[in-house]
Design a protein that fits this description.
single chain; about 140 residues; Aspartate Aminotransferase, domain 1; 6-stranded antiparallel sheet; 6 strands
Length: about 140
């Protein structure tokens, strides 16, 4: 069985109300409108991000293959897969109760759309290039 199938089965088996959604590069698993977790493959690396309670999140983020920049755990061994599959029931409980949060990422927070002014939006737009067509005078 592939790693993706092992993860998929762990998420789906967590509860009867877990849904599976395909994403561009992987799968997401919501439960009652809340995130349970997701996994995806990026640049040939399988990575996972379950939404957990505080105690479980601390052990997840303490793994050696946890990437603080992105908040994803890179799965590089069977031990990583077993570890994540073992956390899925706790992620389900946290998601069902509404106390789940995603793993921390140490990246700088990006401003929300409400924080960006119209002038900033206009300034961020790339300037238009002149038309390549030339006009002929008659």
């Amino acid at each position: 069985m592939s790693i993706e199938n092992t993860l998929r089965e762990a998420f789906v088996a967590a509860g009867s109300d877990v849904r599976e959604r395909r994403t561009v590069s992987g799968r997401a698993f919501p439960v009652d409108g809340r995130a349970l977790g997701q996994f995806e493959e990026r640049a040939g690396v399988l990575r996972v991000r379950p939404w957990l309670g505080d105690r479980e999140r601390a052990s997840f983020e303490g793994r050696p293959t946890f990437d603080r920049e992105s908040g994803w755990l890179h799965l590089v061994s069977d031990d990583d897969v077993r570890f994540v599959a073992g956390l899925v029931p706790a992620a389900y409980e946290a998601a069902s109760s509404g106390r789940a949060t995603p793993p921390s990422a140490s990246t700088v927070e990006m401003p929300t759309a409400a924080d960006v002014t119209l002038e900033e939006k206009k300034g961020a737009a790339s300037p238009r290039r002149p038309s390549a067509r030339t006009t002929r005078s008659r």
